[in-house]
Amino acid sequence: MVNLIVPASAAPDQDGRVLAVTPESAGWEYVGFEVFRLAAGETLQRDTGEQEACLVLLSGKADVSTNEERWNEIGSRMSVFEKIPPYSVYVPSGDAYNVTALTDLELAICLAPGQAEHPARLIAPHNVGVENRGNGNMARLVHNILPESQPADSLLVVEVFTPGGHWSSYPPHKHDRDALPTESLLEETYYYHIQPEKGFAIQRVYTDDRSLDETLAVRDGQAVLVPEGYHPVSAPPGYEVYYLNVMAGPKRTWKFHNDPDHDWLMPR
User: Fold this and answer.
1) Among 28, 159, 189, 268, which is least packed by CB within 10 angstroms?
2) Residue 11: is its pLDDT beyond 80?
3) What is the 3-state secondary structure (H, E, C) of the chain?
């Protein structure tokens, strides 16, 4: 069995990190992802090196600075399930960031190769594209934090809210071939929260030839790796499911291919 679930640590490490995905740990080339939980007054400081970063304030408030910029008292939600767009900060490669928590803070660090082509900037809630995607029990709320229409070198970042009894990343789709203009190659991570926390989500990850075919029960605070294949998500009745997606690949564009068996579900 392939281990696609990345659990959170029982306690933060000395930097406040509770979850980490690196290209080395995932066995791929592009996407890195970390989650930090900081108490009020605690600080995280990092150089970006050869990677660009998107710092997503999942919950809580903070002061954030880079080598050239500073933003004080950012953060607008204390839980992802408030469903308002988050504050985020884009930091290019060759830069650094300093985060000081003003409240309890859950911070996601999304990472991918950078070329230092774009300056650091604040992505405020009003800069986040909000859309209701799908219909019926495929309806979900999407916050486009760092879509391909906004400047970055590699990263694509989005968060999705799936009501109980609904499906998302559905109909099943994939983006694992560098075959533009019809499909792009993008590695992807899913980072989950469940409300109530005792619940779970179901995610399937499978390829056409079923050489990869895993059905996962994912708990609150866990991440899932999607190295290839289709990857639909189900929220069981009674449990709302949130996930933060990070994608990156050789070309920064999201072109997906639906599973032919289920493509009939797409609106025509």
Assistant:
1) 268
2) yes
3) CCCCEECCCCCCCCCCEEEEECHHHHCCCCCEEEEEEECCCCEEEEECCCEEEEEEEEECCEEEEECCCEEEEECCCCCHHHCCCCCEEEECCCCEEEEEECCCEEEEEEEEECCCCCCCEEECHHHCEEEEECCHHHCEEEEEEECCCCCCCCCEEEEEEECCCCEECCCCEECEEEECCCEEECEEEEEEEEECCCCCEEEEEECCCCCCEEEEEECCCCEEEECCCECCEECCCCCEEEEEEEEECCCCCCCCEECCCCHHHCCC
Q: Is 107 exposed, middle or buried (0-12, 13-18, 19+ CB in 10 A)?
A: buried
Burial class (CB in 10 A: 0-12, 13-18, 19+), 58: buried
Q: ω into residue 171 within 30 of 0, thus cis?
A: yes
C-alpha 154/C-alpha 51 separation (Å) is 9
* Residue-averaged pLDDT of the chain: 97
Model confidence pTM above 0.90:
yes
Terminal C-alpha separation, the chain:
37
Q: What 3 state SS string does 26-79 have?
A: HCCCCCEEEEEEECCCCEEEEECCCEEEEEEEEECCEEEEECCCEEEEECCCCC
**Token pair in block for residue 191:** 């980072």
pLDDT tens digits, one per residue of 81-117 = 999 999 999 999 999 999 999 999 999 999 999 999 9
Q: What is the model's pLDDT at position 267?
A: 77
**Mean pLDDT, residues 52-60:** 98
